[in-house]
Design a protein that fits this description.
By secondary structure, this protein is α+β, with helices and mostly antiparallel strands. The protein contains 14 helices and 23 strands. It is globular. Bound molecules: 5'-O-(N-(L-cysteinyl)-sulfamoyl)adenosine.
Amino acid sequence: MRLSRYFLPVLKETPSEAQIASHRLMLRAGMIKQSSAGIYSWLPLGYKVLRRIEQIVHEEQQRAGHIPMLMPTLQSADLWRESGRYDAYGPEMLRIRDRQDRDLLYGPTNEEMITDIFRSHVSSYRDLPLTLYHIQWKFRDEIRPRFGVMRGREFLMKDGYNFDLTREAALHAYNRHLVSYLRSYERMGLQAIPMRAESGPIGGDDTHEFLVLAETGESEVFYDSEITDLKFGDRRIDYDSVEECQAVMEEFTSRYARTDDTHEESAFETQVPEERRRRARGIEVGQIFYFGTKYSEPMGATVVDPEGNRVPVHMGSHGIGVSRLLGAIIEANHDDNGIIWPEGVTPFHVGIVNLKQGDEAADLACDQIYNAVVEAGLEPLYHDGDDRAGAKFATMDLIGLPWRITVGPRGLKNGVVELTSRRTGESEELAPDQAVTKLAQIYAGKL
Ligand code: 5CA
């Protein structure tokens, strides 16, 4: 993409309404525009990152054997009356009436709708296990929407639902989700720690929240510092193996890590030596629940088991805050000059800066590098405007592409361009084709 043909409305001024870095930077980098409180338009740059995050979520869910689908945003109130949640959910639910006077609602989550789909089509244990998921907009009329996409009213969530014959099988689904979430967050350049939490309006006994440590996080967290040394990394896992998934779950959840809802000071003190006790703040980027037959029983989602009895299925639900993740990633990856995208989610792989637009040799070299980057399967953003070099660098630093290739007449005389890392600020002089080769290797994970 050439910047001159793109739509990147960067702001010079720091917007006064934004209290935290990620919100300020998303507005300044032209990624989002508020349309009303807690509701945002996703401008092209923000939309690109949103799609990258969705793509990682899709890949990791499907790797774990979960099946993608799509349910609507508007739901019938009658379904929610069956589970008893229509009245219980309270003012966070946006209730709507259509022209036929039917009660609808903008879905805050989808347990009822997926249970209805299940009961309409599945009636035998032979069709289990089954895990369906979608990535869809949700609406929660939060009393205090704030921090941009971090606590929105309309927000994008991946929500998945497992259906199993027994409690044990459903707990395997729980563990499978935990593993797939660890992988997903690491691919996004984040460490998200599973912590024991409260189940709130979703219900159920077992639940973990995934928290990214950040000073601006809305949750207070208490944990054993050893937890931050754990990495999932690139280990291979057989998602069908109960033992393997259980082992990962135990490894990542056996140390003390809780949100303030479940924190017990006395347990913290007895279980964790003083020098490893940490109190901090975190951003909740996902939550997994096992809730057994809470929805299947009242809604009649049953299957015939091997003995011929009709039994309600065991379920859980599992959510990732897809749009919130942009805020969380930026909170964890920025400096005074702007965003620093992790390579896994960056909107463009490299920025090309032409120091002297209109100079024949520089223009030609930029075009050649641009084409070579595309050939290598990567997406460049070419800053081809007439701005001063300093202004071009400032824009590139603000939007945070992990790599920049700087091309100028002086370097070209010596046959070199500069490859610069946004994170370290370090630059290297390389021949143009070598710079592209190196980039390709970095993104292929070989460097
Ligand atoms: N049905 C379950 C799991 S599918 C559920 O709704 N879980 S949840 O309430 O924990 O939401 C899942 C994730 O959505 C949260 O962990 C959080 O990352 C994100 N989320 C929740 N509320 C908001 C909000 N107001 N703005 C942005 N993201 C949110």
